[in-house]
Amino acid sequence: MPEIAIPPAGATAPVRQRPRRSLRGLPWFALAVLPLLLACAIGGEALLPHDPNGLDLGLAFQPPAWLAGGSWAYPLGTDNMGRDLLTRIMAGTRISLVVALYAILISGGIGTAAGMLAGYFGGRLDALIMRLVDIQMSIPALALALVLAAVLGPGFETVVLVIVVTYWTWYARIVRGEVMSLKQRDYVALARVAGCGTLTIFRRHLLPNLLNTLLVLATLQVGQVIIFEASLSFLGLGIQQPDVSWGLMLADARNYITNAWWAITMPGLAIMATCLASNLLGDWLRDHFDPKRRQL
Amino acid sequence: MPIARRLLHGLISILGASVIIFLISRLSGDPLALLLPADAPPEVIEQTRQHLGLDQPLVAQYLVFLRNAVTGDFGNSYRWQEPALGLILERLPATVELALAALAFSIAMAVPFGVLSAVYRGSWFDRFAKVFAMAGQAMPNFWVGLLLILLFAVQLNWLPAFGRESWNSLVLPAIALGWYPVAAQTRVVRSAMLDVLDSDYIRMGRAMGLPERVLIWKYALRNAAIPLVTILGVYFAAMLGGAFVVEVIFAWPGVGRTVVEAVFARDFPVVQAGVMLTSVLFVLSNLLVDLSYGLIDPRIRHA
Amino acid sequence: MLSVQGLTTHLELRRGMVRAVDGVDLHVNQGETLGVVGESGSGKSMTILSILRLLPRQGGVRLGGKVLLDGVDLLQLPEKTLSSQYRGRKIAMISQDPLTSLNPVFTVGDQVGAPLRYHGRAEGREARRRQVVQVLESVRIPSPETRLDDYPHQFSGGMRQRVVTGMAIASAPRLLVADEPTSALDVTIQVQIMALFRRIQAQTGVGIILITHDLGVAASICHRVAVMYAGRIVESGDVRTLYKRPAHPYTQALLQAIPRFGDRRERLYAIPGSPPSLVDPPHGCRFAARCPHRKPLCDDAYPPEIELESGHKVSCWLASAG
Amino acid sequence: APAPATGSLTVAFGAESTTLDPVKISAGVDHYFVGQIFEMLVRRNAALKDENWLAESWKLDPGKDGKPVLDVQLRKGVRFHNGDPLTSEDLEFSWQRQRDPKSSFFSHYVSSVERFEIVDAHRFRLHFKQPDAQFIVGNMQLWAMPKKYIQKVGEEEFARKPVGTGPWKFVSRTVKDELKLEAFDGYWNKDKRPGIKELTIKVIPEDLTRVAAFKTGKVDFIDNVPPSMVEEFKKMPGVKTVTLVSGNNLFLNFNTQMPKSPFNDVRVRQAAAHAIDVDAIIKRVLFGQGERYAQVGKASNGYDPALKPYAFDQKRARELLRQAGYPNGFDTPCYNLTTPREPGVKEVGEAMYAYLSEVGIRCQVRNLEYGAWISLGKRGRSGPPEMDGVLSWMWSQGLPGDPGLAWSGHLHSYQAGGGWGTYSYTSDPEVDALLEKQRQTMDPAARTALLQQIARLKQERVLGGLPTYRPLVTFAWRDNKIDYVPWPIRDYWRSFQEVSWKSR
Amino acid sequence: MLLEVQDLKKHFPARGGGTVRAVDGVSFAVDAGQTFALVGESGCGKTTIARQLLLLERPSAGAIRFDGQDVLALDRKGVLAYRRQVQAVFQDPSSSLNPRLKVSMLLAEPLLAHGQGGNRAALRARLLELLEIVGLPPGALDLYPHEFSGGQRQRIAVARALALRPRLLVLDEPTSALDVSIRAQIVNLLAQIQRSFGLAYVVIAHDLALVEHFSSAVGVMYLGNMAESGPSAAVFGAPRHPYTQALLGSAPRPDPDHQPAEGLILGDIGSALHPPPGCKFHPRCPRALPACATQVPPMRRLDPAAGAAMPAHQAACHLLQ
Ligand SMILES: Nc1ncnc2c1ncn2[C@@H]1O[C@H](COP(=O)(O)OP(=O)(O)OP(=O)(O)O)[C@@H](O)[C@H]1O
Ligand SMILES: Nc1ncnc2c1ncn2[C@@H]1O[C@H](COP(=O)(O)OP(=O)(O)OP(=O)(O)O)[C@@H](O)[C@H]1O
Ligand SMILES: [Mg+2]
Ligand SMILES: [Mg+2]
């Protein structure tokens, strides 16, 4: 029997004939970047080649090692205060990831709880929670951040608080939607018929089925948190010295963009790589968990 | 949901936002230190304090604020001695224009990207579109703004770097602001398109021999646009918020810049007027979106 | 008129190659209704989609065999020709879920008119409108002039199915393929749709392939019936012969498994087990594992198709062994 | 007569004024905007010489019982932008407006003037309650404001549409965007008229954007060239730059008013003074855009060339600390301003605190945004001061300036209700007395001597903070297009008084 | 009677305003060992009745009595006790089994919820017993639902429903999602369980032949009302309501010599949001009288002779006067 391969209707794209290897679809970029980040974050001080705050004005604006005048002692060059960029980027990894971790755990926790309550019980509780969400969303996040930072003073805790305040609604809305549709599933009704209490239903029937969504949201949030922190830093309200964050480096170096492009580019690339990695991973997870897309 | 109900919810949001912003902005410090010269004597300070009503208890201040706000009176800016509402209203068109332009840019990228990515899913284009879109999501918008200025204004001198003069001064800030949501929007369009392209009615259309372009750009797209349109209100709000930073970079005479500086200066009337107006805008845009997606989704129109 | 020979449809998926359709022979004559019955996942829809080359877009698809419509092999035609000359003209389709086969955001008039427009059969808005009204009238939509501008969700399920049917037959196709056109409808509406099919066939002589999993529906409307199991046709023949003298154990089992009116058996006949996976189907007869008459031979090789009497064909070692 | 003004010019500033009303000025930037439209009786010109401006002449009579009288003859023929002539009544109105706290933030500036006497339309006398030297050095705190106009249109309209006597007439303004001005045809000073018809001042706070605006030719003048780019600008063809010392004086303030503060010990303060390599910071962090000073800047009243800043000497610093009883140093909070108010101020703070830490004054850096910084800098009105360590601070004394006013704010110890020591963390009775004395000394020479005496004490005891540097500000303009004469005085240093198209 | 339902009503507020009269006064009863079937076109309110029986939805009006006790008046404890005796199987096994739980947990859940888990060994023994009842191998305990075929999943659902040894099972289209070949397995299983344990069933189904085969009594619903009800043999043997007749006449049969009759019923299914006045069926009834459009026909008993043991054969139609 002659076997011919013809494209599926409508698609003018060539149909891949090669059998798919299962490794193909993996988010390689993310898998390459994330271990590096984790190593920097977990390795901590021990891995740092220099003191991230060790300033030496004599060393200001050393170019990266591969350029004329650069030295391998400072592979990515130094900033306006003569601090090693590589060291600071590595130190920044830790702060960025810790901020992201706190922000995700807290905003995710609050948002998920609120979303589950609203979605499951509906009615007044739902109305109340959704009004809170509306209120929160109708205040521009940066405005709130500004005012909060003015009250509390800028710094790590403020950044985390602002992100939590901003992002819980994100979780709440999505979780609420999911729970409302999960609630329609027969197994939730049947769990009630079986005599399960509300807590059991939350714990056993809703939460595990939300995990995929939450994992995707959390992964995507890593990138968003980093970008958000950078915006705060731009306004002078992000992470503060002596803590190091990429956003802070970026914001500080912007005045030297024409003198020392590397000082702004290196942390910028770190942000980009991390955000891309987290977004690609989140995207991949989303596709992976979605049975309709999984077959791709 | 009936419009009256929506309006009510909107009002609640605005009111809630006002309480929050009012309270925490008052907690953020004393504006008098910034307002008066260093060596102002205490009488002047006290007098100014009374003059501005800052000697009242917080709740009383809020009630006065609310009563006046209803009539559009947010008080005079402490710094500019002009009515705060006027200051903000004057700047609002610029911010709305920027936010709309950014939104338009993001949609103009996301729709073709999303559609073509879905149609040619798994192709090089799909991957390119994804990386392009995600790049926007992976860069802080002030960095993008600076790079755009360096490239298109300083190096190439194609587009102006600042201000709000002609249409082309809108281009760079709109890109800096509008690139960020492209990824999310592309994803929405792409995944909706994938669903729609797999749907029975598209298959039916194909079985009826309708041209592919009609199926994709007319039949499928209108359906795939629905989820995008439903969240446009949220994106618009995000653009308004993002404008805070981009306006500073591009010296765009908008609300964001004014509010940022007002916060630093503890110029409460301006902060309140600015935030309240953005909230109103947010509520209105969501209302508009609610009303408008009845236009593309007849199921809603007839419900 | 339509002759399908050795059709194979293999889908390349992550989990492996799914042999959804694995060597199917079918033929339909003018004015004839061929029923294809079988369990869910047996490949009925795939067969139809392969005939029209409308397979799902994701993954790789391998099509084999021949689909001859009046002697032209549809599988060899360029996509463009197929789309502009055949689909919606010579072959029309009614897809699996009639309730979702109309686009929710366009008016019914728009959608019925679209094929007319893009196949250039009605120039101008007015002409098209008139034709659409005619189409809707032909499927007995009451007051079509006013319903034209309504959206699908304003129509009941039965009416939507009429609209789709009207659309499909508007171009007077040679062949109409209908994938479970009535499964989502209530019996009272189902009767109406089947009557509509019969009437249309009488008027136009269109050949129909009707897919269903309901043996009752097949019995009431088809001239001939093919029974499909795990990607293959196991038995086919004239509807009376097949229902009265089923030759394949699977057909026999199916007929015994359904309750009938006035028949109060203690137990229904139950077919044990479930159909095999199409990723790695058994070598021999695919029904062997569930077959009450299984012989060693059944596991070794696929039984050849033999013709028991005129038009009644079966693939079973029992039958070939006599 | 000079050629009539033509064409339009666009310039860009990095900051913008909050007000165009002279009695509401609250920040240095306000002057550059107000100064285009309004004028005072006396000003210093481009050559740093005092020049009678709206005053044709003036005379100070020491008066009886220590109550001086200032007798001013107004210039004739001066008109406001709306055509009204300038008369003594306008100045009287101005004085009243300025001393009324309802309209003014500066009532105390004229608080020593008891009575305003109109002699005739162009002559008036100011009668003082007590001598006030600062009034005179403050260019006589009277701005020419149009009485009739303000009374007719009201305060709000005046704030929206200011009318003055200056070379530039107000046209329109959008806050956060631009101020449009037009050369005033009827300007009295025919020699100092702008040769350009329309002037648009754009506000572009982001450095790179302002630079881009200049480079792309959208604007022909910018102020505040970022320090890191000054070299590049100096090399640009067709572009001229001028670098001026700004009116700002930066210093590190120490708390010496808390019982346990290590900075109560003068040796610790001296150690800090020796610990910081200010020159290196100016060179590296500010790209040279700063000028060291000791107590009083060059060309300011009370400048003393003999007074040299403490030398960078870490050994000496450690030694002083040891003597003070801190052989192992100590930890202290150090507050840094993060809002970019002065170029590089945040980085400079970081660097200084790093230097302090090196000798053992271990800084726990706390960052402050602008509003919080201002609040912290201010001495607590009741209760103890909140600033409990080191704070980077600055004060503006005008250019060329006079430190008297500034010192009464941050050097004189705090006096509730007295207007002294608002920002002070210092308390030294001897200096307090001298400060009070200088204010009452109307004789300029005697007063200068007093200021120099205070400066020496201040230097010796490191009082009122440790002076570090005065920022330099660089303006750039397209020299092949416009002629521009910078006036290096605070109120006028971005003034476009003498600007015209390049005569070819 | 084990379960008595009287004049049950459920009205939902509709989205755009108005009321959906999903169930509009339905009465029936079922006794131990008996099967009561509800049939009718989609949207006529069958599932809504089932959900009310399971206390997943509160009736707008009417009474549900279980063992003579008013179910709607039960307190928390009472509800728990009721739930121990009334369990359910739904149409789609893939949505009625939580995909994240292993079969062992799925089966144990009702027991644990009622504190009947006992010790590990006893629990395991009970689970194995349940698996045996529904004909699944013991190894099934450690698998997830997606590892089973549709028929097997429905068996798991049945086993779970049996875990508490209930006295009444509510079966909402238990076989509709299954293929013909599998359907018979489940039907046989359910019948066998009923025989062994003396359970009462309330079953909802579309397949009329199956209902006839399976049920002892049947209720035919139309738009929230009972059109006809009675012993299966009577209703199927001599249907009296024109709707029942149309339903039976329309059903296709696996017999090439039988043609479903056209013309027994007109037009489309009515809407529960805007039900027609009078007899709700009258717009579709080929034999409608003028009175049908205005007067609601009362339920009429058709077999005065029949004993009290069997439910009465009754119908609501003006033609039966
Ligand atoms: N989009 C798809 N992706 C992967 N596998 C598919 C897809 N569509 C069909 N299949 C597989 O192809 C086989 C045949 O499916 P097909 O839809 O033809 O069955 P069917 O007989 O029409 O069943 P049903 O009665 O449920 O409609 C099945 O095993 C199914 O799993
Ligand atoms: N929660 C609800 N809110 C509003 N209307 C509802 C709700 N549940 C059901 N309905 C409406 O009540 C009517 C009866 O629905 P029900 O699901 O009971 O029908 P059914 O007889 O089970 O139909 P099917 O055979 O399709 O399952 C329908 O019109 C339905 O739209
Ligand atoms: Mg199918
Ligand atoms: Mg139902």
Structure commentary:
The complex is a heteropentamer of chains A (about 300), B (about 300), C (about 325), D (about 500) and E (about 325). Chain C is of the alpha/beta class and about 325 residues long. Chain C has twelve helices and twelve strands. Chain C has a domain at about 1-90 and about 210-260 and about 270-280: Rossmann fold. Chain C is about 35% helix and about 25% strand. In chain D, the strands form five sheets. In chain D, strands 1, 8, 9, 10, 11, 12, 14 and 19 form an eight-stranded mixed sheet that branches. Chain D starts with 5 loop residues before the first strand and ends with a strand. The model of chain D has no long low-confidence stretch (mean pLDDT about 85). In chain E, helix 6 runs parallel beside helix 7 (about 180-195). Chain E has a domain at about 215-255 and about 260-320. Chain E is of the alpha/beta class. Chains in contact: A-B, A-C, A-D, A-E, B-C, B-D, C-E. Chains A and C meet through strand 1 of A and strand 1 and strand 4 of C. Strand 1 (about 5) of chain A pairs antiparallel with strand 4 of chain C, so a sheet runs across the interface. One magnesium ion binds near residues 46 and 47 of chain E. Chain A: One of its GO terms (biological process) is transmembrane transport. Chain A: One of its GO terms (cellular component) is plasma membrane. Chain A: This is Peptide ABC transporter permease.
Rounded Rg of chain C: 21 Å
Please name the CATH topology of the domain at 1-89 and 212-260 and 269-282 in chain C: Rossmann fold
| Rg over C-alpha atoms of chain E, rounded to the nearest angstrom | 21 Å
Strand order of the largest sheet of chain C: 6-7-8-3-9-10-12-11
H-E string of chain E: EEEHEEHEHHHHEHEHEEHHEE
Q: Largest sheet of chain C at a glance?
A: 8 strands, mixed
Brief account:
The complex is a heteropentamer of chains A (296), B (303), C (322), D (504) and E (321). Chain A is mainly α and 296 residues long.
Topology:
The complex is a heteropentamer of chains A (about 300), B (about 300), C (about 325), D (about 500) and E (about 325).
Chain A: E1 3-4, H1 28-43, H2 85-121, H3 123-138, H4 141-152, H5 156-184, H6 186-193, H7 198-234, H8 246-253, H9 261-289, H10 291-294
Chain B: H1 3-27, H2 32-35, H3 42-51, H4 58-70, H5 84-119, H6 124-137, H7 141-155, H8 171-178, H9 182-197, H10 200-207, H11 212-230, H12 232-249, H13 255-264, H14 268-296, H15 298-301
Chain C: E1 2-13, E2 16-28, E3 33-38, H1 44-52, E4 60-69, E5 72-73, H2 79-86, E6 91-94, H3 108-118, H4 125-138, H5 144-147, H6 157-169, E7 175-179, H7 187-204, E8 207-212, H8 215-221, E9 224-229, E10 232-238, H9 239-244, H10 249-257, H11 296-300, E11 305-309, E12 312-315, H12 317-320
Parallel strand pairs in C: 3-8, 3-9, 6-7, 7-8
Antiparallel strand pairs in C: 1-2, 1-4, 4-5, 9-10, 10-12, 11-12
Helix pairs in contact in C: 3-4, 3-6, 6-7
The structure holds adenosine-5'-triphosphate (2 copies) and magnesium ion (2 copies).
